[in-house]
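re: the backbone from monday

yeah here it is again, tokenized this time
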């Protein structure tokens, strides 16, 4: 039996090509895409303006399949977190953060994460696999229609949109799952899908320099960079990827990206770690980093209070230290914000997306199995940090 094609895996161009393979004209792809992404319909029979012959073709060859929701929790502050089953023991998390003037969805792009930043509990579970385009866009689709249903708002273009901003800041490094991420971005931006502005979609990266340059050409959206240190020696400790793509290369890539970006500045994210990266000296180094002659980068800073977890050995900077650090940046003329801690009572805060499922990517089981296999063949086990270095 031929496997059914999941239509959620197609970006707009791919859906046109697929309909062409079925002998259909491009406008049918636009109709189909609207049913799937604007109206949230899964049943081909309910897509009433499609020719009956096309509906019959689709029923025999295609499907619209989203990950199963394992849990759906709402924090005291209104933050809502979904845990989604993506098969083979893996789960991902999606978080909605409501504000007075916007609703932001934080989307995952990988099951686990290979970057293994020292301060991020999500990375400690290891990396299992990249998500498909369908699994990435399903998070937006599922959340948008779940939020509308909760508020009694109709599906379709006349229904008030609940999600105004999307940030790819959940589990995983988006630019290490490049192709699937870009296809999902194109759906987020397409008027026959979610119609979001490029300014309201943000990709957050730890600094995958070659992919930053590709993104500038393929689908330039707002860019955030997980920086967390003002010099290479410290960043090598906190963000292992820096050993491969150092700060000189990263700053140059950010400067190149701004030629295509929809926003006038790069947002640099900086997790505040007590006694590690939060001194006045570090703040001044940070200013020097982004203003150095020949690579000056228009910058904003988002200071992130660390969300502690036992294995990290790190502590959160005091509120007074965060304010003093931020004042140095503000006094130098940089827009500087401090991220509110949201959803920490349901483990939905920044860096906490490891949640209640223990070892959900089965990293311990896979590491032990790899060690046994490599021991048999006479090879040593290579750490994630070594692979990225």
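seq for it, each position gets an aa:
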């Amino acid at each position: 039996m031929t496997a059914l094609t999941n239509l959620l895996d197609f970006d707009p161009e791919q859906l046109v090509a697929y309909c062409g393979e079925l002998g259909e004209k491009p406008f049918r792809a636009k109709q189909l895409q609207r049913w799937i992404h604007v109206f949230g319909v899964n049943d081909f029979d309910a897509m009433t303006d499609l020719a009956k012959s096309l509906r019959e073709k689709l029923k025999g060859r295609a499907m619209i399949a989203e990950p199963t929701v394992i849990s759906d929790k709402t924090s005291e502050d209104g933050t809502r977190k979904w845990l989604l089953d993506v098969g083979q023991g893996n789960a991902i998390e999606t978080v909605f953060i409501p504000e007075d003037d916007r609703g932001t969805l934080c989307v995952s792009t990988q099951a686990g994460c290979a970057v293994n930043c020292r301060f991020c509990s999500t990375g400690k579970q290891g990396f299992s696999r990249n998500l498909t385009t369908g699994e990435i866009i399903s998070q937006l689709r599922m959340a948008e229609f779940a939020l509308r249903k909760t508020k009694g708002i109709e599906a379709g273009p006349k229904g008030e949109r609940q999600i105004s901003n999307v940030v790819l800041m959940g589990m995983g490094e988006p630019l290490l799952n490049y192709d699937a991420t870009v296809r999902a971005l194109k759906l987020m931006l397409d008027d026959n899908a979610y119609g979001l502005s490029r300014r309201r979609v943000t990709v957050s990266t730890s600094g995958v320099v070659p992919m930053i340059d590709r993104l500038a050409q393929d689908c330039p959206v707002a860019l955030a960079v997980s920086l967390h240190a003002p010099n290479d020696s410290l960043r090598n400790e906190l963000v292992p990827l820096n050993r491969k793509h150092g700060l000189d290369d990263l700053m140059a890539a950010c400067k190149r990206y701004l030629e295509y970006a929809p926003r006038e500045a790069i947002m640099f994210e900086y997790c505040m770690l007590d006694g590690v990266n939060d001194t006045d000296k570090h703040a001044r180094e940070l200013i020097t980093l982004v203003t150095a002659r020949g690579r000056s980068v228009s910058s904003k800073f988002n200071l992130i209070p660390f969300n502690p977890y036992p294995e990290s050995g790190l502590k959160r900077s005091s509120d007074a230290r965060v304010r003093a650090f931020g004042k140095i940046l503000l006094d130098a003329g940089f827009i500087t914000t401090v991220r509110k801690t949201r959803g920490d009572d349901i483990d939905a805060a920044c860096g906490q997306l490891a949640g209640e499922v223990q070892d959900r990517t089965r990293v311990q089981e896979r590491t032990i199995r790899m060690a046994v296999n490599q021991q048999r063949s006479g090879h040593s086990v290579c750490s994630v940090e070594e692979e990225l270095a």
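The chain has two domains: 5-63, 68-363. DSSP finds twelve helices and 14 strands in the chain.
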